[in-house]
What does this fold into?
Amino acid sequence: MSKLYVVGIGPGGYEEMTVRAAETLKSCQVIVGYTVYVELVEKHFPDKEFLTTPMRQEVERCHLAFARAQEGKDTAMICSGDAGVYGMGGVILELSSQYPQVEVEIVPGVTAAMSGAAVLGAPLMHDFAVISLSDLMTPWEQIETRLKAAAQADFSICLYNPSSKKRADYLKRACQILLKHKKDDTVCGTVSNIGREGECSRVYTLKELQDVQTDMFTTVFVGNSDTKLVNGKMVTPRGYQLGRK
It folds into this structure.
């Protein structure tokens, strides 16, 4: 039986991949992915066949990967971050019944919530929620409901896809919802181009965050009521009793 791997490549740099992800890509003959993600990895696997599709052609991309696997070629569908967190793992598995002769294996990776949090410090040390602000497949009304619920529950919150050219004010709108349930001075942070050239991070208050310009390559972190700055790093205490030495 031929095999299709769905591989989370992490933030994008080769050194940011898990060993399992890198070894899987080495073993495959074909690597399929969104154009931007393929450009991040192709120099590290020059002997592979690469197939790409642009944004908004995710289903077509999956059928392309299954077709190569059906030909008997071990194939990898790559995703940034983790394959099962806003990645292609779910779509591949939903389509897998159409390709019973192809075995599917999900290979996890490091999602932006984890890699971005490490850049900022430790903002997700306690319970947290991850919410995408993209309304391409989720109605904005549902996103608003989730933002409100997460804020009321005092979760630390990680926001994916905070804005784009067509959604320039979505982060501002999200912050206005959060400000109804969180204090103005709640510690927040942003990380752009995580693990890639041009990586940068900044720390803000929630009040300041609503006026920050971001893009699809930025991940936003909003602390809970206990989150604080320690030597410039975001820290959300978990409740350990820290004794003095």
User: Anything to note?
Assistant: The first strand starts at residue 2 and ends at 8.
